[in-house]
Amino acid sequence: MSILVDKNTRLLVQGITGNEGGFHTRKMIEYGTNVVAGVTPGRGGQKAIDDQVPVFNTVAEAVKETGANTSVIYVPPPFAADAIRESAAAGIALVVCITEGIPALDMVATYDFVKQQGVRLLGPNCPGLLTPGAAKVGIIPGNIATPARLVLFLKVVP
Q: What is the reported pTM?
């Protein structure tokens, strides 16, 4: 099993200035996730989440300025497929799409594009992911998991 997000994750939030994006960004920051940028077209140059997070007009600008390597998407369904493609085209390695209700035909073309870019896509219509004690990306409550050491015992049978 792979760990997809950790303390080295540099998260970009698409739709950070909306109600859902803002609310869940606060929760991700409280958990300890390194949120480095937000993207809302037309709001570039502003700051979000108590002036902690710079907002950019495009994902490409945000990646160039902040080195973001993961994106989480909180945009309405008509714009979500384009948001996924924008992240993939900008070189984001992991795209997490929370948005539900994206038209299936939009996702067929989007998935092909994402695959061609070598990007990992989680979603759409998913709660995100969490690495206990390291990072949370999405809408998963941070208190449902705690860090632990995994010890594996093997019994060798002749």
A: 0.91
